[in-house]
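Posted in: Structural Biology > Protein-Ligand Complexes

Title: Requesting predicted complex, iron/sulfur cluster in pocket

I'd be grateful if someone could produce the 3D structure tokens for the following input. Sequence and ligand are given below.
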Amino acid sequence: METLLNRKDIFGLTLAELQEALTPFHVPRYRAKQIAEWMYKRGAVSFADMTNLPKQLREELGAALVIGRPKTKDRLDSVDGHTTKFLLEFADGTAVESVLMRQPYGNSICVSTQAGCSMGCAFCASTLHGMARNLTTGEILAQAITINDMLRAEGQGGKVDTVVIMGSGEPLMNYDHVLGFIRLLHEDYVLGMGYRNITLSTSGIVPQMYQLADEGLPISLSVSLHAPHQELRTELMPISRKYPMEEVIKAARHYADVTKRRVTYEYILIDHVNDGEEQARELVSLMRGQLASVNLIPINPVAERHLLRPSAARIDWFEHYLTTHHVNVTVRREMGTDIQAACGQLRNQHLQD
Ligand code: SF4
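-- Reply #1 --
Done. Output follows.
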């Protein structure tokens, strides 16, 4: 990517790509690894920060290359201190949301892969303004590195432990950049993150689900189901017209078969829409014989959508029904409802402002 000053942006390059970008500077190959570690692991936002590089080289590099990092445009902390939401703005003014969740098992982050989204899910704020554009590998990675830098600065060995690719956007519609991001996260000169600590969530883009299964990466796959039959699913998720539920489930089963990883079906619970006995029964029969679990997500109401959260009693009932019918089920802990945790809400407010 070229910046306005025509300096090449190196943030998001792999080590091999960085070596290539450094060719005109005639530096020894080990310098590329040093620079990568500065950018990705040690919080350097400019070459001036890279104190083990000769001063003249730092100046030459700074004149020709740039480390493209977003600005933190807004930051909201939940009252309990467990959730922080960031609105990050890239050089062209595009802003996206990323979320840090301090869980008992470690720091989990949720990253966006597109600015906005074109999928049109009825319960989602990210899609209200359509999609602006795909994010690059560097822009997706920058979300993780920005939060990792912040955690490191807090001390006590804080770092990003797990990543969920579940923010704004449909990751499988930005396949190459998302895969580039996943592979970079795993590199030891970036965060050295185990693939098993990475979860990708899709609304069910069937061809790319098969493609992902063939990548040989043991990342976790999470599929947005949200309804137990095609008709209701299409009402909630228009993409279901193009990729019918049956096909999505077939692709998810294939993913579980190939990777031996349990697939998680996300199921947003919406009051009197998909949380009744009939839907619970259908969901149980859909799950039969699958290496899968269901994650129930009581909806974070989006004012523009008029969809309401079920009562605690209805949520408990639905969970209990699934459990007693031998479905592996979890209910997503409420995090950050006081800071507009539903994806896209902060960005929308920014767009309106
Ligand atoms: S839920 Fe995901 S796929 Fe659906 S509109 Fe929102 S961001 Fe897009």
